[in-house]
Design a protein that fits this description.
The complex is a heterodimer. Chain A is of the alpha+beta class. Chain A is 20% helix and 40% strand. Chain A has helices at 2-11, 69-87, 119-133, 209-224, 240-252, 257-260, 330-336, 369-374, 425-430, and strands spanning 18-34, 37-55, 58-64, 103-107, 139-157, 162-180, 183-188, 195-198, 227-228, 232-238, 290-292, 315-319, 322-323, 344-345, 354-355, 360-362, 378-390, 396-408, 411-417, 420-424, 432-435, 442-451, 456-464, 467-475. In chain B, 21% of the residues lie in helices and 39% in strands. In chain B, helix 1 runs parallel beside helix 2. Classes of the chains: A alpha+beta, B alpha+beta. Strand 2 of chain A pairs parallel with strand 3 of chain B, so a sheet runs across the interface.
């Protein structure tokens, strides 16, 4: 494909300062079962080419699914016209250095290929999961889903770039909904579709699969008679499957340089972080160490190059609580003078790259789970995201979880349902009082991070240990 | 007939001719040729075009089914090849899948063809048309335009074709200290004068935002929600709300109404209404939705959106819903609060133009949380005092559409769906403004 794309590139005859072709072919499968009956089975193939041209400091793009020389040349002409028409009003003059020459490749780690199980066998497995989840007649619905994606991208450019990346991604989810009268409780495996990884079926058929399925069903029933989460200000302990969301919303998005530059203000919003904050803002307590790390094997958004060809490396965004650098592409770095990372990403061939998270992780501390809990007189421990909402500056948030436990005198005690908490980002992270060690660190992800105009849903990964926050407002459900 | 329609029809014929006895299929098409130009600070941030098309072929046989999605380019030769590969792969896969007793086969003899042509800006004229009159403003947003196609065909001969030219400009204007007003300008025929008038209207709204924002303490306040804010609340009803399947499976906020435990205000009526014709009436089985369908009438739950699949599983009547049972062309009926009486009827409280980032905080009890956003004001004795700092609300629809609903406005606004995930969305929501008592703010 690289040679074919290079041939197309060579045949493009426009007076541009730079031309890039990014081709993508993505094949995905969706299989889901509800209550023992197949709900969805299918596969999707999408393929096309994004043509970018740089003229007079303005990039114009044209995406097409016509994979012929004629189609690519027509797209290049459109992209050129777009750039010319806009160059008089461009927001900044894009330097050629925003599209560096790079040559390389990346392949996801893969132990158990997707075709190790036939579609029929995957359905049998999903059916068995839904049946095992129904531990009681009070379970009114069970579901199980497996998603796989094999994506290949090829990038060539007029300044000599040649990049090939091959991704294998898997996402799984299973849940049980329990109901008794007007009380309804849903429990899932780490929150909706949080089990997302790069790799194969090894992330689905895990040694603890059936014990976990049993636990999910049992906990759904347990929640029906649990106390509602109390309304109080207390110590909050979050499991890694909720830290996924917490890091994403209150650290990742506010640090995106395009939000700070205002590009995103009409859609997802801006940020409370200002450009002058980089290098000195105390974002959280000294225990807070956040890395952008696309090098973690198996984490959902690992890669070697972003979609403009920038080589991806592990970098601290926040070190010992102090803001170091932003989630900003080479373009955003050129616009701001702030250090960034290789994070210019597009959701598919038909969308232009923008500043995105990839893998964003909280680095582990030095306390085991038992020691963390033992040090708390009174608090609430929460697992698995259920609801999320945060303001357009990424300041005031309210999140809820599926399952919680009261912490009393250093021990987990009664189960709590409808656990919610709300806070303001700097106060929240300033209250980070303890961080679990490597044994508590887990990684999750989601394929559904939404941003951009036109809109793009993209993959992100988040790893975290257990984390403890002081003086957080928690509360329960009800009208 | 366009080249794409001809190509689609030829492909349908090819698939029909290949069908074996006892096999059934549905074929749906989503296609667009779009221009996207993104602005920030009244300058161009990104600009480009997207030519895309995707077919979904569902093969049904022996009470089993699977689908393949694949590109639709309009080039019959390459599209035919990929469709043939898809049929072969589907035959192999369907044979090994478990039975689905609730599989619904296509039936009926519905056909339709709607083509709405418009007059859009030439792509090369977009920037030079839009920017000059906002160049003194902090203008940000996106212009999206072009042709969008939705089509359907199946093995029993049903066929639908819906093609429309449209544009939307979704924008915000900001003050120097970050306060903002929101505007959307959409249609099928570009009108320079209307665009200028719209920007002038937004410009005058922005002038109201010049004052320092007022910080409001958490609590309950009498509140006016403008149509765009009400539309945000309506979108929640497509997510664990008005779906019959959600109710049957424990996931609907309206189950308390179905059990007879709750009602909404007699002032509240929600319908699906396709009379405007901005979205296709056919669904993913080729069925045609009724022109109007009452969902909640004077506070009573009348219907939930029920797909044929759900109907078969639970022994109910289907009502033309899609398989996702989401609202496609919803409206809330207006009330009697006149535009010029809004502030005086509000008296002292909050005036909210928009809401942002809504989510369920407790779905079974209908509780929704979210943020205020854009042109939200503190009002005293019927006079706007100052814009407010962002506030978080957390309240139940059984309160704000129930006993706390004071009035709905006598006018409504069409809020276009400007979403562009995967493809450009069509349609929108028709909503009045509403005045509610004791709206709950928590942060």
């Amino acid at each position: 494909m690289i040679s074919e794309l290079s041939h197309f590139l060579n045949a493009i005859d426009i007076p541009a300062d730079w031309v890039g072709l990014r081709a993508m072919k993505e094949a995905s499968t969706t299989r889901s079962v509800r209550d023992g009956i197949p709900e969805t089975n299918g596969s999707s193939l999408t393929q096309g080419v994004m043509v970018e041209v740089l003229v007079n400091g303005q990039i114009g793009y044209a995406a097409t699914n016509l994979l012929s020389l004629e189609g690519i040349r027509a797209a290049a002409q459109k992209a050129y016209q777009q750039a010319i028409a806009a160059s008089e009003w461009n927001i900044y003059s894009t330097p050629l250095s925003a599209r560096p020459k790079v040559v390389g490749q990346y392949v996801s780690p893969l132990m158990k290929p997707f075709d190790a199980l036939s579609p029929g066998e995957i359905n049998e497995l999903l059916i068995k999961i839904t049946r095992e989840l129904k531990v009681s007649d009070q379970i009114v619905q069970t579901s199980a889903t497996a998603l796989t994606t094999e994506a290949e991208t090829w990038f060539v450019s007029s300044n000599g770039s040649e990049v090939y990346q091959h991704f294998f991604r898997i996402g799984t989810d299973y849940s049980a909904t329990a109901q008794e009268g007007g009380v309804v409780q849903r429990r899932s495996n780490n929150g909706w579709l949080a089990s997302c990884y790069q790799g194969g079926l090894e992330y689905f058929i895990t040694p603890d699969l059936w014990s976990r399925v049993q636990q999910i069903g049992t906990q759904a029933i347990e929640l029906l008679t649990a106390e509602d989460c109390p309304s109080e200000t207390t110590t909050l302990v979050l499991a890694p499957d909720q830290m996924l969301l917490q890091i994403h919303e209150s650290v990742g998005h506010p640090l995106e340089l395009d939000r700070i530059l205002g590009d995103e203000r009409n859609y997802a919003g801006g940020s409370f972080v200002k450009l002058k904050d980089f290098g000195n803002l105390v974002y959280g307590s000294p225990l807070m160490n956040i890395t952008f790390d696309p090098t973690v094997s198996g984490e959902f958004a690992s890669y070697s190059f972003d979609d403009t060809g920038a080589p991806a490396t592990r970098e601290y965004l926040i070190k010992e609580g102090v803001l170091q650098r932003g989630l900003g592409s080479l373009e955003s770095q050129a616009r701001t003078g702030v250090k960034g990372v290789a994070c210019s990403r597009a959701s598919s061939w038909n969308r232009p790259p923008i500043d995105r998270m990839a893998n964003l992780n909280l680095e582990p501390g030095n306390k085991s789970f038992e020691k963390l809990i033992a040090g708390i007189d009174r608090g609430v421990y929460m697992e698995s995201n259920r609801s999320w909402s945060i303001d357009d500056q990424r300041h005031k948030f309210q999140f809820s979880c599926e399952y919680a436990k009261r912490i009393e005198n250093g021990k987990l005690t009664t189960t709590l349902r409808n656990p919610n908490y709300r806070s303001i980002t700097p106060q929240f992270w300033g209250g980070l009082v303890a961080v679990g060690d490597r044994s508590t660190w887990q990684m999750y992800g989601t394929p559904m991070c939404g941003k951009g105009e036109p809109n793009q849903a993209i993959t992100v990964g988040h790893g975290s240990p257990i984390a403890v926050f002081a003086d957080i407002e928690v509360f329960g459900g009800g009208a | 007939m366009t080249m794409l329609e001809t190509s689609f029809n030829q492909l349908v014929d090819e698939i029909r001719n290949q069908l074996k006895p006892e096999e059934q299929f549905t074929l749906t098409l989503e296609s667009e040729q779009s221009q996207f130009t993104r602005f920030n600070h009244a300058k161009v941030r990104q600009t480009g075009t997207v030519n895309d098309g995707s077919l979904q072929l569902v093969l049904m046989h022996n009470q089993r089914s699977s689908y393949r999605e694949f590109p639709f380019t309009g080039n019959l030769e390459s599209d035919r090849q990929i469709a043939n590969d898809a049929i072969a792969a589907l035959r192999e896969e369907v044979a090994q899948l478990p039975e689905n007793p609730y599989l619904v086969l296509p039936a009926g003899n519905n056909t339709s063809r709607e083509v709405h042509t418009g007059q859009l800006l030439d792509s090369e004229a977009v920037v030079s048309t839009l920017i000059p009159i906002v160049s003194d403003l902090d203008f940000t947003g996106i212009y999206a335009a072009g042709s969008v196609i939705r089509a359907y065909a199946d093995s029993v001969g049903q066929k639908h074709w819906f093609a429309t030219d449209s544009y939307s400009l979704d924008y915000s204007l900001f003050t120097a200290d970050g306060q903002a007003v929101k505007g959307t300008f959409a249609g099928s025929n570009w009108n320079d004068a209307a665009y200028k008038a719209k920007i002038e209207e937004s410009r005058s709204q922005l002038a109201r935002m010049a004052q320092l924002p007022k910080s409001i303490q958490r609590g309950q306040y009498r509140t006016y929600l403008a149509p765009a804010a009400v539309a945000e609340l309506m979108t929640m009803l497509s997510w664990g709300g008005i779906s019959e399947a959600s109710h049957q499976q424990g996931g609907s906020c309206f189950s308390a109404m179905r059990r007879g435990e709750k009602k909404l205000s007699p002032k509240f009526t929600l319908k699906e209404n396709f009379k405007s014709g901005v979205v296709p009436r056919f669904n993913d089985l080729g069925e045609i939705a009724p022109l109007e369908l009452s969902l909640i009438e004077s506070g009573e739950l009348i219907n939930m959106l029920t797909s044929s699949r759900t109907a078969k599983e639970y022994g109910l009547e289907a009502n033309g819903a899609t398989s996702g049972e989401e609202l496609r062309s919803p409206e809330i009926l207006p009330g009697d609060l006149k535009h010029d009486r809004i502030l005086s009827a509000l008296g002292t409280g909050l005036y909210l133009s928009n809401l942002h980032y809504l989510n369920w905080s407790d779905r079974p009890t209908g509780r929704i949380t979210g943020m205020t956003r854009y042109a939200c004001f503190w009002v005293e004795n019927g006079e706007i005092v100052a814009p407010i700092e962002n506030l978080r609300f957390d309240d139940s629809l059984y309160q704000f559409w129930g006993e706390n609903l004071i009035a709905l406005t006598s006018f409504r606004e069409f809020i276009p769906d400007v979403g562009t995930y995967s493809h450009r969305n069509l349609g929108g929501l028709l909503a009045p403004g509403m005045l509610v008592d004791r709206f709950t703010y928590t942060l």
